[in-house]
Amino acid sequence: MNVVITGATKGIGKSIALRFASEGFNIAACARNKGDLDHLSDELKEINPAVEVYTARTDVSKKEDVYKFINGTVQKMGSIDILINNAGVYLPGKITEEAEGTLEKLIDTNVYSAYHATRAALPFMEGGKKPHIFNICSIASIIAYPGGGSYTISKFAMLGFSKVLREELKPQGIRVTAVMPGATWTDSWAGVDLPHERIMEARDIADSIYSIYSLGPTAVVEEIIIRPQLGDL
Ligand code: NAP
User: 109 CA distance to ligand 1 centroid (A)?
Assistant: First the structure.
């Protein structure tokens, strides 16, 4: 079984890759930094030498890069069972004050990336044993964070994308899940001075995704909200 994960070298994406590899799934991973991809590849082979790993340097904000990554995956692995649209960036700011071009950058990276990856991957998912698409949204997909600016717009769009996809893909038996995590320890929080227990571990998001995938084929978790036990920051 083959899992494709965008933005898999750090944070939530990396935890997902490690979790699925430890369960015996082959992993296709992309990110922009080649050294990080090589490191991920070594780690995946270390935790499970039996899995096949394909990595490709990719900027998901560029449509042609996304298609190249998906086509490369199919050439190497033949088909795609699970697509995890995870890559995303967080740029804090206010809509009224943020730098010119912020919305464009966030929509390119956080939304168009998933749209193109999904359209590129779908022909190779149809007819699979248990095809599933996970879209990593955010609590910012359902509430407006003060200071969340265009990031919030991009994550509302990502949830809209996921809802439409869920409706469209029902007849093909392709399951679609929107994952909405709250604050999760990753590089996005680097340098922030907060008590450790106020923020979730990326491993918990990966475990949730694996358990949702593990449900029987007649059930789908359409949306999941995961918050720090003490609530949002
Ligand atoms: P992260 O630790 O910053 O990791 C982001 C990953 O995506 C890295 O592997 C990064 O590698 C890759 N990436 C970023 N821009 C890319 C691009 N243009 N092309 C290809 N790869 C790219 O992020 P994270 O916090 O785990 O976030 C992952 C997802 O969860 C995002 O969609 C984020 O919005 C969402 N999320 C995060 C939190 C949180 O609190 N952490 C909460 C809710 C939702 P390179 O830099 O090498 O490209």
Answer: 10
